[in-house]
Write a structure and sequence with these properties.
315 residues; five-stranded mixed β-sheet; three-stranded mixed β-sheet; 14 strands
């Protein structure tokens, strides 16, 4: 059975090469999106020895800004290339800072034995949740001010009482000073319409990283082709990569064919981001991630020893 790896990367060509070295088999294919802001040449150089490697190029490459729709579109572009190439088997979404914590043989057997299962974790977005974590994700507008992390504004429509808080006024003043009056007017134009999640799906949120059989990937592609408004809606969503695919799968597929995501992540409660795993986290990873196939996130410039320990464990 083929495994088609979708890999989103923006740095670390040598680390990406090490990731491919651990995943490559005669039945693996790699579809790689390098952030448009990064130089693709070092990545091409490092991955030249590996077979079945396809880089997205030209208009397929995007600036995958944190919490923006670019991350979703880059994933869709890879999915569509896999479909166009008539691949079979599983599609697995990874980042360039992920790493397998199981052997290639184990990974292939795992997907073979459970073929047809969608490995993606999500839970419903409920009105009773904290605004930032729940309804705010789907009812508020988000715009990026630059490509820098967290450089963004989140605001409600003019029909929400929250729009008339001093903080929102200050945000628009800040936007006008930072960008221009026309930018401020553009955002205000958005706010003239109440933002509503598309009625034909239930909203779900979860981990970005998943593994899906090609049949599910094809279904998602057909779905978004038939519902272009779903893409348009998510261009104003905060972190749509944690909602976009999940809401389709959990709304349209039987829950009996859905299981938790295949990637272990140690989330930090203080900033909501993933912990950078180091040598001291090895035992934690082997224990808490024992049912997972992959883990994130790693940085060989900071600590490569943990990857050496993982390799020895799987030797």
């Amino acid at each position: 059975m083929d495994i088609n790896y979708i890999i989103l990367a923006h740095k670390g060509p040598k680390q990406l090469a090490r990731l491919l070295e651990k995943l490559v088999t005669n039945e693996t294919w790699f579809y790689i999106h390098i952030d448009k802001e990064a130089d693709i040449v070092p990545f091409r150089h490092e991955l030249k020895p590996y077979r079945n490697v396809f880089f997205l190029t030209g208009a397929q490459r995007l600036a995958a800004v944190w919490a923006d729709f670019g991350m979703v579109q880059a994933t869709i572009n890879c999915m569509r290339q896999i479909i166009a190439d008539k691949r079979k088997g599983y599609c697995v979404l990874l980042s360039g800072q992920d790493y397998p914590i199981k052997s290639t043989g184990f990974i292939h057997d795992f997907f073979n034995r459970q073929y047809g299962t969608n490995f993606v974790q999500a839970c419903p977005i409920l009105p009773s949740e904290n605004l930032e974590q729940g309804p705010g994700r789907i009812n508020l507008y988000k715009i990026n001010l630059s490509n820098r992390r967290n450089d963004l504004l989140v605001f409600p429509s003019i029909f929400d009482k929250a729009f008339y808080r001093p903080l929102i006024f200050e945000s628009f003043v800040y936007l006008a000073k930072r960008k221009s009056v026309s930018s401020c007017l553009h955002v205000l134009h958005k706010a003239l319409k109440r933002r509503r999640f598309p009625s034909y799906l239930q909203p779900y949120k979860g981990s970005q990283w998943w593994a899906l059989p090609i049949e599910t990937v094809q279904y998602i592609d057909r779905f978004i082709n038939q519902h272009p408004d779903y893409i348009a809606y998510h261009k104003d969503t905060f972190a749509p990569d944690e909602i976009f695919f999940h809401s389709i799968i959990y709304s349209m597929f039987d829950k009996s064919c859905i299981r938790e995501e295949p990637t272990y992540v140690h989330w930090q409660p203080d900033n909501g981001g993933p912990l950078l795993l180091r040598e001291k986290n090895f035992e934690e990873l082997m224990n808490r991630g024992r049912d997972k196939l992959f883990a994130r996130k790693f940085d060989i410039e900071i600590d490569s020893t943990i990857l050496d320990l993982i390799d020895r464990e799987n030797a």
